[in-house]
Design a protein that fits this description.
Blueprint lengths: L20 H24 L11 H18 L5 H4 L5 H7 L8 H16 L5 H16 L16
Length: 155
């Protein structure tokens, strides 16, 4: 499968579709949970771990809540909303407002997701549907853009 990544552009409208329900159907609740826990374990060891609680119990709560989000966004039961979650996609955008999220951080996050998806046994078309969602949607979490700098010769 080709895991295409396109750059975030400040102010760009980002169209996206939720993943195909077949992704959840193929993995089921426990399979989704296992996949997402592997993903967050990768995040915990990544260069963006600092965006998450370092206390293991607090991190476990974030991992659980975000897993419920992904289960529901993939067409699973309404477990996220039942756990007190707000509007699905709006939540995932707003929760990042407290952090300066740069493109570099987004790419690290997508790298962990790619690693996780590569190890997940599910139909390639379903995997692609999930990837297309996270790749596009992750652009909406980027809220800090660096200005390009052109340095003169240092000679």
């Amino acid at each position: 499968m080709n895991f295409n990544v396109t750059a975030s552009v400040k102010g760009e409208e980002v169209p996206f579709e939720n993943p195909a329900k077949g992704f959840y159907d193929a993995l089921g609740f426990e399979g989704m949970k296992e996949m997402m826990y592997r993903f967050y374990d990768c995040i915990y060891e990544s260069d963006i771990a600092n965006f998450f609680p370092q206390d293991e119990e607090e991190f476990a709560k974030v991992k659980e809540k975000n897993t419920l989000f992904f289960i529901e966004i993939c067409g699973g039961p309404k477990v996220y909303k039942e756990a007190g979650g707000m509007e699905l996609n709006e939540f995932m955008i707003r929760v990042h407002d407290d952090f300066s999220i740069y493109e570099k951080s987004r790419l690290e996050w997508l790298g962990c997701m790619r690693e996780t998806l590569e190890a997940t046994e599910v139909d390639e078309a379903l995997k692609e549907s999930f990837w297309n969602y996270v790749e596009a949607f992750s652009k909406l979490t980027v809220n800090s853009f660096t200005k390009e700098r052109k340095f003169e010769s240092m000679h």
